[in-house]
Design a protein that fits this description.
The structure holds two protein chains of two kinds. By secondary structure, chain A is α/β, with parallel strands linked by helices. Helix content of chain A is 19%, strand content 41%. Chain A is built from seven helices and 20 strands. Chain A has helices spanning 11-22, 26-35, 50-53, 113-121, 350-357, 363-379, 385-400; strands at residues 78-83, 86-90, 97-103, 124-130, 138-144, 150-159, 164-173, 179-188, 193-200, 207-216, 221-228, 233-242, 248-257, 262-271, 277-278, 281-286, 291-300, 308-317, 323-332, 338-346. In chain A, 52% of the residues are buried. By secondary structure, chain B is an alpha/beta fold. Chain B has ten helices and twelve strands. Chain B is globular. Chain B starts with 5 loop residues before the first strand and ends with a helix. The chains are: A alpha/beta, B alpha/beta.
């Protein structure tokens, strides 16, 4: 007989338990008390051992005076800010868009500690109902302000049948050891189209966690892009669910990591019904001792015949000490599907570099051109030119910074 | 006597432990076109890479002078700015980099290296359109990623267009005829001939005499086992075509 060994709790776990008890979330507090934060033994956290990486959790963030919230300068965007979890809009919402609030958290996925924390800590979520096609880009700027704080916020986005929109979420922070736990639930009606871009530009001292859950209805077309280019520790967990025939997802992501950074994109995709498709494409660029993790799981339900899904991860190492970790997983219960996965990793191609240099382009500039070219596959499909332009800016700033 | 554009003296080069160039001597005076012919594996392409400065090759002995100045210590981009241009046998495909963007970066980088001002966009567009018209490179092709999905002919036309835009003093054409049909060969040759000038020299590397009917050389060199074994006028190319290489290098074909 063996008895479960009690988990030794660390400072981060004790702080979380106290915060959860403080808001009456005893069940979640109990879970963390029993299991602790996930370690490498939990498959979904295999390369991002939270118990090891999250040394401490600051006090729950208090409402902050709304300062100057930096966001990406997207031309003509409609801007909403979420400062320490409190929402404020700037100007009038575009026609067809209703902004409101809903009580409590928004995520329906249960089996994840960061999700449980978010659902327990969020009192009120921002709700966006997009009833008609909107040309104006909707930008939601999350900001962790003031002294180090633990911020949990949540957004619920509904795109009605046949409507289309582009939503960009940015994350920034003051230079303190914030812990952000963000949740976005997106529901796409029949034939709805959404481009959802999330960009983390938090301070290096911060830890950034986000969970994006997508429910794509029949004929719905979803394009997503996650960019990690800020926090020292960043993880975005994606849960796309394809729930109607013809639902399609282009799920993409990019980890840009420098020395000492750890960024993780984990996707758990579920093809639930026949005739859905997805093209998950992730890229990693690591320099210094940076570490990038990409995990992609495709689950195809027994009924989901004719599923067409292919996971791809391409890594680019800019230093010998960098680490890029890749874990594709297929879990297929249907027997008539086209599913696959691929993963590549390497340095900049010497022949390409020589070709550019042989035309007079100096080495540093040639390298930058090749990296930009490598990433263009992620930015190019984004139809809104203003959004594509600011993304190029984010990439260029990362390339220029060391 | 005026300084030749290119002077190669007793050039030895190796890749890893294998010596490929074994004492090349070659002088190309300004305005002349020289051809190098040789069988596969004789080291012709290596010579072109060594001239352009590819890192994989180590020069162990000898000297390369461009307009009287040694270029051995220069990296490929510095050599390009100094006037070397290599038209690749297999131009590299670079996804995500639009041909137009690349051309502008290359032209401006060379101008910058020479201390000249960057081109304005209208000026750039004008020269690109002009060069493109001559080589049947249209705006649509220029918007596509560099060499990606280009046909064999398109790739070679794009190479010669780059050459026309960058105005090098030494053009090295590595098997420019490979992968070309008769029509494409004519367009490319016409483009090359239009660039012949008193202050520019060319080194045309090829297997076949065919190309030399279109780009007529002043001097033909036969390359074998890492060095030049015979030189002559353009009739040498015809002899080679008739007799094969064995008569010149003594080895069986």
């Amino acid at each position: 007989m063996s008895f479960p060994v009690p988990v030794r709790l660390g400072a981060a776990e004790n702080a979380l338990i106290e915060q959860l008890k403080g808001v009456g979330a005893d069940a979640t507090a109990e879970r963390i008390t029993v299991a602790g934060l996930p370690t490498r033994r939990v498959e979904a956290y295999h390369y991002t051992d939270l118990k090891l990486l999250l040394k401490s959790v600051p006090p729950l963030a208090r409402e902050a005076a709304e300062g100057d919230v930096p966001s990406l300068a997207i031309d003509d965007a409609f801007n909403i800010t979420l400062v320490n979890g409190v929402a404020a809009r700037q100007g009038d919402a575009p026609e067809g868009v209703n902004i409101g609030t809903v009580q409590g958290g928004v995520l329906t996925t249960r089996d994840d500690v960061l999700v449980q924390l978010n659902n327990s800590l969020v009192r009120e979520a921002l709700s966006l109902t997009i009833g008609a096609s909107v040309d104006q880009v909707i930008q939601i700027a999350h900001r962790s302000e003031g002294e180090a704080g633990h911020v949990a916020d949540a957004i619920k986005i509904f795109v009605a049948d046949g409507a289309s929109a582009t939503v960009v979420e940015t994350f920034s922070s003051s230079d303190a050891a914030h812990v952000g736990n963000h949740a976005t639930l997106v529901t796409l009606g029949e034939g709805a189209q959404l481009t959802h871009v999330t960009v983390d530009l938090s301070a290096r001292a911060a830890s950034h966690f986000a969970t994006n859950e997508y429910h794509v209805g029949a004929g719905g077309q979803l394009r997503t892009l996650v960019v990690h280019a800020g926090a020292g520790l960043a993880r975005t967990h994606l849960f796309p669910h394809y729930q109607g025939a013809g639902a399609h997802g282009d799920i993409t992501g990019l980890n840009l990591v420098s020395d000492g950074q750890h960024a993780d994109i984990t996707m758990d995709a579920r093809h639930a019904v026949p005739q859905t498709s997805s093209q998950p494409l992730f890229k990693s660029i690591a320099r210094g001792r940076g570490k990038s993790v990409v995990q992609g799981k495709l689950v195809v339900a027994r009924d989901a015949q004719k599923t067409d899904a292919k996971f791809m991860h391409q890594g680019l190492m800019l230093s010998d000490e960098a680490e890029i970790l890749s874990k594709p997983e297929l879990e297929i219960y249907a027997d008539d599907v086209v599913c696959g996965h691929g993963s590549t990793c390497g340095k900049l191609d010497e022949d390409s570099l020589f070709y550019l240099m042989s035309r007079g382009i100096p080495q540093a500039e040639a390298e930058t051109m090749l990296v930009r070219g490598f990433l263009e596959e992620l930015v190019d499909p984004i139809e809104d030119e203003a959004v594509a332009e600011v993304l190029h800016g984010v990439i260029d700033r990362w390339l220029l910074g060391k | 006597m005026t300084t030749p554009i290119l002077e190669i003296r007793n050039l030895h080069a190796r890749i890893e432990e294998r010596e490929i160039l074994k004492g090349v001597n070659l002088t190309i005076p300004a305005g002349e076109v020289h051809a190098i012919m040789g069988r596969n594996g004789s080291g012709k392409s290596t010579l072109s890479y060594v001239l352009a400065g590819k890192e994989d090759y180590e020069v162990t002995e000898g000297e390369i002078l461009l307009n009287g100045e040694s270029i051995l210590e220069m990296d490929p981009s510095e050599r390009a700015a100094a006037g070397v241009f290599l038209a690749f046998q297999y131009p590299i495909e670079i996804p995500g980099v639009a041909t137009m963007t690349f051309l502008k970066a290359a032209m401006n980088a060379q101008r910058k290296a020479r201390g000249e001002a960057e081109m304005t966009t209208p000026e750039f567009m004008r020269v690109v359109k002009e060069a493109g018209a001559q080589l049947q490179v249209d705006t649509d092709m220029l918007k596509r990623p560099l060499n990606v999905g280009f046909s064999g002919g398109e790739k070679k036309r794009a190479e010669i267009m780059q050459m026309a835009l960058l105005k090098p003093s030494l053009c090295v054409l590595d098997e420019t005829d490979s992968g070309l049909d008769i029509d494409a060969l004519q367009v490319v040759s016409k483009g090359v001939n239009a660039l012949r000038a008193d202050n520019r020299s060319m080194l045309v590397i090829t297997h076949y005499q065919r190309l030399l009917n279109h780009i007529v050389p002043d001097v033909v060199h036969v390359f074998s086992d890492g060095r030049i074994v015979e030189s002559g006028d353009k009739s040498l190319a015809l002899q080679l075509e008739a007799k094969g290489y064995a008569d010149f290098d003594g080895a069986a074909a």
